[in-house]
Specification:
The chain has 438 residues and is an alpha/beta fold. 32% of the residues lie in helices and 23% in strands. The strands form five sheets. A six-stranded parallel beta sheet has the order 2-1-3-4-5-6, sandwiched between helices. Strands 16-17-18-20-19 form a five-stranded mixed β-barrel. Strand 16 and strand 17 form a beta hairpin. It binds iron/sulfur cluster.
Length: 438
């Protein structure tokens, strides 16, 4: 039995790097500590406990995690410093060596943090509790209110795909998921807390149902019935798992937004084979066409990696040309970085940093052209926006259902309220469209 009296009057600070899943999990850890008497620090306060939820998707992510840990140690010099997340799971020894780290928790231990916090007064002890990834079996539900209006609802974790460049299965374990009835209850909870928009998130959400015998489509159908949710967004779905039934369902649903995030990774079939992806460019093209046939105004965001091992100049040009002909709205461009213990390291051909930079610029230019074209195609249309808490007083921003960023002068009565607007012209830096509120 944990003696929670040791937590009395204690304050905690939280730092999250990486994906929506990490944000959902940090928030759930925060709720757990709050429920046991450890409140969140207020701006400018010094914490007794710091929790850093790290990312390790690239070398740069590792570096940013180390920088964050060092900065937090300086900001909270006497705090008990806990580091968890993918970097902690993949390199616990490396993390523990960082000055000031007191506790390293693995992916399977992060939700048992209370147990480990009993060591609160054993400062500088360098405790590591990280189980081997193959021992991670359980699914820990999580749901967070991001710092904006939307909630991140974790429905699935881990991955069985083992793409040749990726370490996520090594950091988060095998694919597993929560039960539909429990996830529906979490969505109902978001509504009770005033949530209007929920983002369905996981590592490989399309693989939902692996451990419960349910299906992703059944989950979406069940969530669609939750009263009070204004809209859902699906974070990202593997192209081979985005079935025509799911696309038809989204098109017919009042609540599921016409917004798709598809990880393509390369527009060259030869590179897709080397990446061990589970589709080819013709399947991907079919999915995009299917979406645009029944939802012509849908937003389609696409992930692409440049500079992977084996991506020759010719294969890169194939990738660029393939994406140029796709009717999509924006790219998320990632630069490949070597990851330990990945199959990609067996491929001899490498791309120089200068060449990676050049390829990334070409993809980013193409992405900006696609975004401007998509936004332009929507000017004059009527949409619904949920405006977010403004960062500064005068201007507020919000996204339409088809993921167009909009801008208008601040009216606090409209924050987190679904608002019908007509899309106007671009703002000065072309980052958003202005709106006329109806
Ligand atoms: S699908 Fe591939 S890229 Fe995505 S998490 Fe799984 S292994 Fe990594």
């Amino acid at each position: 039995m944990i003696d929670v009296s040791i937590f009395e009057h204690k304050k905690a600070a939280y730092y999250t790097l990486g994906c929506k899943l990490n944000f959902a999990e940090t928030s759930t850890i925060g709720n757990l500590l709050e429920a046991n008497g450890i409140r969140k620090v207020r701006r400018g306060e010094i914490a007794d406990i710091c929790v850093v939820n790290t990312c390790s998707v690239t070398d740069l992510a590792d570096k940013k995690s180390r920088q964050a840990i060092r900065r937090i140690r300086l900001e909270h010099p006497d705090a008990f410093l806990v580091v968890t997340g993918c970097y902690a799971q993949l390199k616990p020894g490396e993390v523990a060596e960082i000055a000031g780290v007191d506790l390293v928790l693995g992916a399977g231990q992060k939700h048992e943090i209370l147990l480990h916090l009993e060591r609160l007064n054993e400062k500088g002890g360098k405790h590591i509790s990280v189980a081997p990834v193959q021992d991670i079996r359980g699914f820990s539900p999580s749901c967070s209110q991001g710092d904006r209006t939307r909630y991140f609802l974790k429905v699935q974790d881990g991955c069985d795909y083992f793409c040749s460049y990726c370490t996520i299965p090594l950091a988060r374990g095998r694919s597993r998921n929560g039960r539909i009835d429990a996830i529906v209850q979490q969505a109902e909870n978001c509504v009770r807390q005033g949530g209007k928009e929920i983002v369905i998130t996981g590592v490989n959400v399309g693989d939902f149902g692996k451990t419960t015998g349910e299906t992703f489509l059944e989950l979406l159908q069940a969530l669609d019935k939750v009263a009070g949710v204004e809209r859902y967004r699906i974070s990202s779905v593997e192209p081979n798992l985005l079935t025509d039934e799911i696309i038809d369902f989204v098109a017919a649903s009042e609540r599921f937004a016409p917004h798709f995030h598809l990880p393509l990774q390369s527009g060259s079939d030869s590179v897709l084979l080397m990446m061990k992806r589970k589709y080819d460019t013709s399947l991907f093209r079919r999915k995009v066409q299917k979406i645009k046939d029944i939802m012509p105004d849908a937003f389609i965001g696409v992930d692409v990696i440049v500079g992977t091992r084996g991506e020759t100049e010719t294969f890169f040009e194939q990738s660029l040309a393939f994406i140029q002909e796709l009717d999509i709205s924006q790219l998320h461009v990632f630069t490949y970085s070597e990851r330990a213990n990945t199959q990609a390291l067996k491929i001899d051909h490498t791309v120089t940093p200068a060449e990676k930079k050049k390829r990334s610029c070409l993809m980013l230019d193409l992405s900006e052209k696609k975004r401007i074209d998509f936004y332009t195609s929507q000017i004059g249309t009527q949409r619904k926006v949920i405006f977010e808490q403004p960062k500064s007083g005068k201007i507020m921003y919000g996204f339409t259902e088809n993921y167009i960023l909009t801008e208008c002068s601040c009216d606090r009565t409209l924050i987190n309220q679904p608002t019908t607007i007509v899309l106007g012209n671009f703002n000065d830096d072309k980052s958003a469209l202005k709106v006329e509120i109806l």
